[in-house]
Amino acid sequence: MSSIRLFILSSFAELGPMHGHRLRQEAERKRVPFWTDIPVGAVYGAMNRLAAEGLLREAGREQEGNRPTRQLYEITEDGRHALARLRHDGLTEIWFKYDPFDLALTRVDTAKLDELPALLADRLARMKAQLEERRRMIEQALPFIGVAEEWAVRHTAHRMEAEVQYLTDLITALPNLIADERNPRPRKEKP
Fold first, then answer.
1. I need a labelling partner for 69 at 20 to 30 A (CA). Which of 27, 109, 143, 163 fits?
2. DSSP reduced 3-state for 50
3. Are residues 55 and 135 in the same domain?
4. Whole-angstrom Cα distance, residue 133 to residue 157?
């Protein structure tokens, strides 16, 4: 599932032919980096890839004033089929990435176990600060976004809330974790 492909193809399907700069402006106007993993500057390269794949095609050229001539693109029929698949996949696939934190936790330096409570407390404090910042950003954005976009930005906040709860629970369990790391209990081998 590619967020940037979904954004670009859906923008062309909705807005019609346009040049890359207009697409970038649309991404900025819709505050796409706020609720997706799309860096606004990446739209140009992604547009070129979509055109090379036949999902976009040149639709003419445009010149405004003294500005350089800009190439206009439009979505193709193949692009519309790809868009339909991306929309479906985006709503049905579960997107989950493992956090390197989990591996680091299982590979903690036993010589530095006394540092673990402070490290986790700091991580929790930073996570809470990020969550509060996210909540402020959502409140500021609400007058400018639709209901679907509101729920999209709230999704990240809900995930952050779960991370705060996880870290809180982990800190509570730290005495047992540290004791187990210092004196590991025997583990059964899989047959």
1. 27
2. helix
3. no
4. 10
